[in-house]
Specification:
The structure holds two protein chains of two kinds. In chain A, about 40% of the residues lie in helices and about 10% in strands. By secondary structure, chain A is α/β, with parallel strands linked by helices. The chains are: A alpha/beta, B alpha/beta. Bound molecules: thiamine diphosphate.
Chain lengths: ~325, ~325
């Protein structure tokens, strides 16, 4: 259970070479997509609030390689990295971000609300903490279906101070739901430093109150993340109940893109950014001999092409017609 | 269909309605505080017998956890189930408002139709049972003001049973309000269950002089007022809205077009209430045809008080409804 020895107690599964390369592919996708998002916003071609998940890319990448297409995720406004790792198609995602009718949600959701049930991406909420109660319901449905489906619910460290977190962990525990609570602890809630708002030194310790295992994991280490996710997901799949994973990480681009990070020191930021998880993991794959430069370069290049194509597809797509304004309010049109 | 009838309360009617849906569709599930039989089958017994009949997996007592109850209902609904969630009292929806307003009501729209939350949230409320300011409010206007939600408030057992069946089978989230004062209302109802479509009002009594529009237990008061008015030679047409959102504009407008006069009465505070919406619509549609200003009746703008005379004075009375109707004729 929650301890400073981090993942002690986890039966450490090790990703095979192909899985490691797949984790890298997802990380590269997230990193390159983030770079492209910031570029497109800066160029003025798109206007949107952007909560970058760059720096946190290991977490969903190492989790999602343990998931099937039937498994589901819920996430938050800072969740495009989670969506990409789960497999939401780039074209649909970019079109949604651009408010186009070809977007996942016909442009009615926007960057803070990507939903794509076909990929198992059930919810992106803009309300801190709200991914958790709904994930429980999806997990309850999985249980009632007698399926092996598992639900992952992502949230920040700040969200562990809101009531919904506590209600959700309690209910998931007493109902033994197949859900994994993934706290992406990036040290800050908006501009407030972790310790100023949180009563415990590790959020994983809160799991004790709810009778479930809790682990603090190095969320920037693909091997540690993979092992922790594998253990929690296996436990959920086997019907043994929920787990709380606290994944230690850092967000590179502040709370919302454009904020000036006044609330942290330049040194703190520089130190974290010097350890770019994608660059480090790429280097490791090469030094370990897990992949060749040629192999990884091809992966990176394919992603770059796909992202450029998605941006052009999105910006070239039609805006939703005004007739869409009043559809999808109810199942039936013309209720009002 | 049999023509047989039996006596039923609103408690029994809602219970029968839910039970019939659970028997017909294994996807119908129930959750809420104390809803299971081991916990008494709900604080007034609306869900009594359901867990015995359909099992603890489908009828789940929850901790005291309104946000988690609503979240579980929304997630299960997204996952293909038809949850019937009980929030013990309408005032307790306040601690689950994020789930209801930001998520249940909006998920269909915000996902471009990919997800939806076909669920029912049942709750009881009402002044008159000495429960004070945090256990008595009629807050339906909040929910009516939220696109994506439907709001149903029955006044009698037969409607309650027919409406809960339609609410459970509706593809959108439905707020289903049960008035605590009306729970014990007993009437003869057909043994066979007939669903009552949402969005359809009921003309309970035809009349020619004035239309009285109401719902919930206040409708019973409107009926008593109509008896008084009849003695004075005033013919009132009585409309029970039954579904408050979407409300039956057609029926109400047609009736007021005929009578030229309207009184709207509800338990919730009058200001910014359902009556204001109906009155505004009527003047938009019938300006020039109205024979008198439309009267809106509701509670004064104060919390529900505890002390009996204050609590009694808070809720619209038979006399107030009759006086308002009379005033449209003079
Ligand atoms: C209920 C609620 N309160 C406040 C906000 C405003 N807000 C948006 S993000 C945020 C910080 C959340 O921090 P954390 O949970 O640590 O997630 P992070 O953004 O760091 O990923 C706040 C306060 C909100 N969206 N919802």
């Amino acid at each position: 259970m929650a301890s400073t020895s981090q993942t002690s107690g986890i039966n450490a599964a090790v990703p095979d070479a192909a899985t490691q390369i797949e984790i890298y592919r997802r990380m590269s996708l997230i990193s390159q997509n983030d770079e492209a998002s910031r570029r497109v916003i800066r160029s003025g071609r798109l206007m949107m609030p952007y909560y970058s998940g760059k720096g946190q890319e290991v977490i969903p990448s190492a989790i999602s390689v343990n998931l099937t297409d039937e498994d589901q995720i819920c996430t938050i406004y800072r969740g495009i990295h989670d969506m990409l790792a789960k497999g939401v198609p780039l074209n649909d995602l970019w079109a949604e971000i651009a408010g186009r009718v070809t977007g996942t949600c016909k442009g009615k959701g926007g960057p803070m609300h990507i939903t794509h049930p076909k990929s198992g991406a059930m919810l992106t909420t803009g309300i801190v903490g709200s991914s958790m109660p709904i994930a429980n319901g999806l997990a309850w449905a999985a249980k009632l279906d007698n399926s092996k489906r598992v639900v992952i619910t992502n949230f920040g460290d700040g969200a562990s101070n809101i009531g919904a977190f506590h209600e959700s962990l309690n209910l998931a525990s007493v109902w033994k739901l197949p859900v994994v609570f993934v706290c992406q602890n990036n040290r800050f809630a908006e501009h407030t430093r972790y310790a100023k708002g949180t009563s415990v030194d590790q959020i994983s310790k809160r799991a004790i109150s709810y009778g479930m295992p809790g682990y603090t994991v190095d969320g920037n280490d693909p091997f540690a993340m993979y092992a922790a996710a594998n253990a929690a997901i296996t436990r959920a799949r086997e019907g043994e109940g929920p787990t709380l994973l606290e994944c230690m990480t850092f967000r590179f681009w502040g709370h919302v893109f454009g904020d000036d990070d006044f609330y942290m020191t330049k040194e703190e930021k520089a130190e974290a950014m010097a350890k770019d998880p994608t660059i480090l993991f790429r280097a490791r794959l090469l030094t370990d001999g897990t992949a060749t430069e040629d192999q990884l370069a091809k992966i990176d290049a394919k992603i770059a092409t796909d992202i450029e194509a998605a941006i052009e597809y999105a910006l070239g797509s039609e805006m939703p017609p005004v007739s869409e304004l009043t559809t999808d309010v109810y199942a039936e049109a013309g209720v009002f | 269909m049999s023509a047989e009838t039996k006596k039923l309360t609103i408690i029994g009617a809602v219970n029968e309605g839910i039970a019939s849906c659970m028997a017909a569709d294994p996807k119908v599930i129930v959750l809420g505080e104390d809803v299971g039989d081991l916990e008494g089958g709900g604080i007034v017994g609306v869900t009594r017998g359901l867990s015995a009949k359909f099992g603890d997996e489908r009828v789940r007592s929850t901790p005291i956890t309104e946000q988690a109850i609503m979240g579980a209902a929304i997630g299960a609904a997204m996952g293909g189930y038809k949850p019937v969630a009980e929030i013990m009292l309408m005032n307790f929806t306040t601690v689950a408002m994020d789930m209801i307003i930001n998520h249940a009501a909006k998920c269909r729209y915000m996902s471009g139709g990919q997800t939806s939350a076909p669920l029912v949230v049942r709750m009881m409320t009402g002044a008159g049972i000495s429960a004070g300011g945090q256990h008595s409010d009629f807050l339906e206007a909040w929910f009516c003001h939220t696109p994506g939600l439907k709001v149903v408030i029955p006044s009698n057992p037969e409607d309650a049973r027919g409406l809960i069946v339609s609410a459970i089978n509706d593809p959108d989230p439905v707020i289903f309000v049960e008035c605590s004062r009306a729970y014990g209302t007993t009437t003869d109802v057909p043994v066979d269950i007939t669903p009552i479509p949402l969005g359809k009002a009921k003309i309970v009594q035809e009349g020619t002089d004035v239309t009285i529009i109401s719902y919930s237990e206040i409708f019973a008061r409107a009926k008593l007022a109509a008896v008084e008015l009849a003695k004075e030679g005033i013919s009132a047409e009585l409309i029970d809205l039954r579904t408050i959102s979407p409300w039956d504009r057609e029926a109400v407008i047609a009736s007021v077009a005929k009578t030229g006069r309207a009184v709207i009465a509800h338990e919730a505070v009058r200001s910014f209430g359902v009556g204001a919406e109906i009155a505004a619509t009527l003047q938009e549609e019938l300006f020039g045809k109205l024979k008198a200003p439309i009267k809106r009746l509701g509670a004064a703008f104060n919390p529900v008080p505890f002390s009996k005379p204050l609590e009694t004075a808070h809720v619209v009375s038979v006399e107030q409804i009759a006086a308002a109707a009379r005033s449209t004729l003079t």
